[in-house]
Amino acid sequence: MPAMSISLSDKMRGFIKSRVEGGDYHNESEYIRDLVRRDQERLKNEEGLIAELDAAMASGISDQKIPDIMREVKARLKADGRL
Questions:
Q1: Where is the chain membrane-spanning (predicted)?
Q2: How far is Cα 72 from Cα 68, in angstroms, rounded to an integer?
Q3: Is pTM, for the whole model, over 0.70?
């Protein structure tokens, strides 16, 4: 695996070291890799949300009233076990 050099403040370096010493990670590299993976997942989720918002905007204005929409959403959430 190719190496990468980064510059961090003493405070950041101390924080990373404390995470490793606390047993959350085996070493500093593992911590940084975890941060990158989490950021990748966050970006993926953001892209999905943006796609859903774009689709919603493209679908136009609903004829339904807000209470009716809320009932449908609650029914869907209950059906798939999220509520």
A1: none
A2: 6
A3: no
